[in-house]
Structures are given as C-alpha cells and as structure tokens.
Amino acid sequence: MGRVAGKVVLITGAARAQGRSHAVRLAEEGADIIAIDICANVESPEYDLATEEDLQETVQLVEKTGQRIVAKVADVRDRVGLQAAIDEGVAELGKLDVVIANAGISPIGAGRPIINFTETVDINLNGAINTVHASMPHLGEGASIIMIGSAAGLIPGYGDTGPAGPGGAAYSFAKQTLVQYVNAFAVQLAPTSRRINAVHPTNCNTPLLQSQPMYETFRPDLENPTREDAEPAFATFQAMPIPYVESSDVSHAVTYLASDESRYVTALHLKVDGGALVQRGL
Fold this sequence. Notes:
Elements: E1 8-12, H1 17-28, E2 32-37, H2 52-64, E3 69-73, H3 79-93, E4 96-101, H4 115-135, E5 139-148, H5 165-189, E6 195-201, H6 212-218, H7 227-235, H8 247-258, E7 269-272
C-alpha cells in the first residue's frame, strides 16, 4: 500500500471501465484523483458511453478509500474546456503528478459511415494529446504521463479493414500514432526528469468490447451473435487461453508506471496482452 502516496493523478474517461479501475486502484495506493469524463454519448459508437451517474459512482468509490477526488465533465476534443477542467482540479488539489490519457471509443463494424474514422481519431488520438498538452504547465520534475494504448497499436498495417470498417482503421491508426508520440516526446521530456510511457492492453472486458457491433465484427458468420458466441472468437486474439483481460489487470501496470518504482522508465510500451502480439511475431 502507499505506492503513489501523496500524488495527484488526472484520469480521462474516468466514469467507468478502465478509467474507474485506475482511479480506484491508485486511490487505494494513496493518490488523490482528478476524474474527467464527457458523460454523454457521441455520434459514432453504437453503444452508450458513461453518464454523470457513472462518474458519481467513481467519486463514491474513491472517497471510500479515504482519498480526495475532483470530478469534472469535459470533452477531450475541446482543448479550452479540457484545460479549464484540469486547471480547476489542480487548483483544488494543489498540484499534478501523473496524467493518464485513457478516454477512447471504438465504433467498429463494416459498412459504417466515415464519421466513425474522424470521430475516433478526434477522441483517441487528438483527445489523448490534448490531455497531455493541457496538463504540461502543471507537471514538474518526476511527473509521469501514461498513455492507454492498445495491442492494435503495435500491429503494423493499414488499408482494407474488412469487418472492422472505418472505425477499426481509425482505432489502429490512433493507437499506432500514439506509439510514435510516446517515443518522440520521451526524448523531449527526459532532460527535465519527466517521463511518458504507454500501456497496451489486448481485448479488455469493458462496454467497449461487450457491445453488439463488436460481437458482429468478431463473428461475421452469424446474423445476431451474442456475447457467448463472440467469446470463443475473442480468445483467438491471445496466445493465452483467455477471451480478454480485466480492467484491474491494466490498472496494475498503470500503478507501476505512476509510482516512483518506475522513476527511470520512459518510452516503455508495456503490453498487457496475454501473448496476443508475440504469437504474431511482434
């Protein structure tokens, strides 16, 4: 316990799923939290995003640990609004030590409109970079930036995305580009003893994965596939005999990168992927 005691951590997409898991895990280890979420649906995903009620549940779970939390509704695509939310959170909690750019969508599926591409890039790539850059004025020596990437970001290739459609192409593009961003920015940050790393999960058991469009993408052979139909197909992505990892598995990696245990670790791409990449020779 206490691995991040005294630190203040900013997390986007904090209302549920991975973001909530990171918030609670880090609070259990002694951090105060700035939790940001859009708390509204956007146009392209065919599944519901988090609500303000979800964000309040995150608040309650963090407060149960005895740590402080400031929750703000903001859209990572809106740099001005995001900057204001971050500034307000820092003003209330006094500083900022760790940034976790977690917010993201995955509106995949064949035959979907081009907005699935543009909106995914706007949120998953531009929104992640907005989060980091809006936080920079508050980040001093020893700060840690953590990008939540994806195993998809470490698989080369683009173009014909088959059943994944334009949203799938954008998801891969965004996560691939974040890999290069981490590598390039790490060099710029290093002289000031600030660092940036990424965690790359495989399929993760969240509403992003557990959605009808995702079931249809993994089981295009079925007309109306269910979760039970999709899970054997999910399992083919990993070398280990699992359909997905849990949010808590990702949070363990995030905790290490947020802590001073990793104080000399930068530009690391930490895979939490059940062997998904190594079985592809990557």
